[in-house]
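Bench notes, bay 3.
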Amino acid sequence: MGKRLVQRMRMKSKHYIALHLRFEPDMLAFSGCYYGGGDKERKELGTIRKRWKTLHTSNPDKERRHGKCPLTPEEVGLMLRTLGYGNDVNIYVASGDVYGGEETLAPLRALFPNFYTKDTIASKE
């Protein structure tokens, strides 16, 4: 299946960027970071954190300031723009379920409208 996805992306453009955002709920919970989602986010991620008995208690703000938290999809998009990639670049997001769903992905999609996922380029074969 991987080869087929690569072929389909190359049919759209010879070059593309494949991203794995690492912004899944379990990754965010494991990191101990929070992203401004208020009590709902703290409760959801806190529940997931309980799966790991050996996780240290951290200061989410300090961890984020020290670069120990996954970047949000928007931050990834801004970083790519800063590196010189324009909105004509094809982006393939290889991540699983992104925390916050489409609402979280919307800023990245706005920065890079040629945005693809496995669901958008894979067939049911």
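Next record in the batch:
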Amino acid sequence: MSFRGLNASSGMGVADHSKNTFLELKRKKVHRYVIFKIDEKKKEVVVEKTGGPAESFDEFAAALPENDCRYAVYDFDFVTSENCQKSKIFFIAWSPDSSRIRAKMLYATSKERFRRELDGVHYEIQATDPTEMDLEVLRERAH
């Protein structure tokens, strides 16, 4: 598939399953995280992996590919200084330096449209290596 076939302003479509899985994370808390990938044959963003509510941040980070781009949402639970339990949803655009330039371009041009489909995301992080999205970064952004 060439880039000429893509509308750069709209990017890829979004599979209904992707939207529904995000809503399950947001409303029902059945997932700790969801990792999405672009299916170039279907020309849409699809769910690649979900993590159960008991899965850790380390398990989430390990599930992201080392050399390829992905989108992810992570439901971050924390306790405020007032001792209140809170939860914030992070959208993470994972684009490691070692990924192919074509993949980086594809994910970059599709990000905004996909992100708009995910109503209820509190924060967005663009990460090129794990240190840009570690737990400390999430804590700082959430407080």
